[in-house]
Each structure stands twice: as C-alpha cells, then as structure tokens.
C-alpha cells in the first residue's frame, strides 16, 4: 500500500507518518511532499494508492493541486483545520476528510474506507461536485454524492423530493428514481440542505420546498408534493413550517 502525505508542515507530516505506521496496513510504503508543485511531481513518480492532502500550503492550496490533475487513480483523504465552509463542501461531495490534529481512530476508519474504495473511479466526479460547492455558485444543477452499500450516486439537489429518517439512516426520494438509503442521519442532511430550500416538517421528514404543490390544513397539516406524495407536518414543527411557507 503506497501512501503519499502532502503537507507544508514537516512536524505534521512526521506525526501522520508515525500514526500510519501504527495502523495495520499491508506492505506500507510512505512518501512525502511539502506543497502543490512537489505534490504533483510525487503523484506522478510515486503513483500512490492513497493521498493525504493538506488544504493550505505555501505555494497554493490542495484545491489548486487537484485542478491540475488530468488523471486520478488514487483515493483522497483531505486533512484540514476547522473550516466550516470547506467541511460542508466535503460532505456534499462525500470526499473523506480529517480534522487536525488527527485522531488515530478517525485515521483508521478513513484508511479502511479508502482501501475498500480503491477500485472505484468516482473521485473525478466527486471533485467536480466539491469544486462546485467551493465556488459558492447558485447553479441549479448542483449535486450531492450519496453512497449506499453497493453504489455511489451523483444526484441533483433540485431533483430530491424529500428525505425520510429510518433509524440512523436516511432514505432519499428522488424524482423519477428509486429511493436511496444512506447510512447518515437526517440531522446531517438537515444541516447540509437547509440553505437549498429544504425544510424540516417532522422529526422524520426533510422536504424540498420547491416540490410542494399544496398545503392541506386538515388533521394538523399535510404537505402534498409533486406526483401526489403526502408528507406530514408534526405539531411541534407546524408553526415554523407555516411561517416559512408564508414567506
């Protein structure tokens, strides 16, 4: 397993190297780079299986490096300090990230996930979605990456009808598509999708407001979406939903 660490801080590269050597990784080979230029050279010469990429470096950013890659055949794990906006973009793209200082348990989980995904070729599309989020554009075709047990889906946010909680999982209902069950909580997606006009109507439902056709005020309130789908409004959420709709 060939792993490349790209970070401008020597102490952090050394610390991550030590943590990786403690992980149970078969035939581990490590290499390092300290910036965008050296990172691009190392990716070409070292041909890594997994790349740990810092965001802020002396000669540019990790995003600068990624946009210069013509071919991507490795798994990416981004290392970053607390940057709420960047983290939100990583969540939309489903690109794995670790917050500094890196927690050993989080590192092991990221390595396991990367090894499982070594044969997948989804990263190019995930990076496009990441860059779309970073650009902060109002493109109606913005997408979100959803993973179930077997597949990775690239879904237009505008095509999502609603999301429903199923225990610790979330089921996405998408226009003219089969539902997708994702192993993240509805709360995670509530935080991600609110700025795209999604409203929480119930502890188990998150609705794309652009898909609402009618509000039926009987029995406490029911939203009728495109295709005649009925979504309940809980008593607790009723006032907030009505206030939101009135605006």
The helical percent reads 25-40%
Number of domains: 2
What is the gyration radius calculated from CA atoms? 21 Å
Strand content: 25-35%
Structural class: alpha/beta
CATH class designation of the largest domain: Alpha Beta
Mean pLDDT over all positions: 91
Q: What is the global morphology?
A: elongated
Q: By CATH's scheme, which homologous superfamily of the largest domain applies? A: Response regulator
Low-pLDDT segments, ≥5 res: none
Biggest beta sheet attributes: 5 strands, parallel
C-alpha termini separation: 55 Å
- Per DSSP, the total helix count is 8
Based on the model shown, name its key terms.
247 residues, 5-stranded parallel sheet, Rossmann fold, 8 helices, OB fold (Dihydrolipoamide Acetyltransferase, E2P), 2 domains, alpha/beta
What does this structure look like?
The protein has 247 residues and is of the alpha/beta class. It has two domains: 133 residues, Rossmann fold; 90 residues, Beta Barrel (OB fold (Dihydrolipoamide Acetyltransferase, E2P)). The protein contains eight helices and 17 strands. The strands form five sheets. The protein has a five-stranded parallel sheet with strand order 2-1-3-6-7, sandwiched between helices. It is elongated and about 65 Å long. The termini are far apart.
């Amino acid at each position: 397993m060939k792993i490349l660490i790209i970070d401008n801080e020597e102490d952090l590269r050394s610390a991550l190297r030590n943590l990786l050597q403690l992980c149970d990784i078969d035939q581990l080979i490590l290499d390092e780079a300290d910036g965008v230029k050296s990172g691009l050279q190392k990716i070409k010469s070292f041909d890594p299986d997994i790349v740990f990429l810092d965001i802020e470096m002396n000669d540019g950013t990790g995003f600068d490096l990624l946009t210069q890659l013509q071919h991507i055949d490795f798994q990416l794990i981004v290392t970053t300090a607390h940057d709420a906006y960047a983290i939100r973009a990583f969540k939309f793209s489903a690109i794995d990230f670790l917050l500094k200082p890196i927690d050993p348990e989080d590192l092991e989980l990221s390595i396991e996930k990367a090894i499982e995904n070594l044969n997948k070729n989804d990263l190019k599309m995930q990076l496009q979605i990441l860059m779309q989020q970073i650009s902060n554009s109002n493109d109606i075709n913005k997408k979100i990456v959803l993973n179930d047990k077997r597949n990775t889906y690239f879904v237009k946010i505008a095509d999502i009808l609603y999301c429903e909680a199923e225990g610790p999982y979330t089921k996405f209902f998408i226009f003219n598509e089969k539902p997708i069950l994702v192993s993240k909580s509805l709360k995670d997606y509530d935080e991600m999708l609110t700025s795209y006009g999604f409203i929480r109507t119930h502890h188990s439902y998150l609705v794309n407001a652009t898909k609402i056709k009618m509000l039926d005020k009987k029995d406490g309130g029911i939203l009728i979406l495109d295709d005649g789908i009925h979504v309940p409004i809980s008593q607790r959420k009723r006032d907030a939903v009505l206030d939101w709709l009135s605006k």
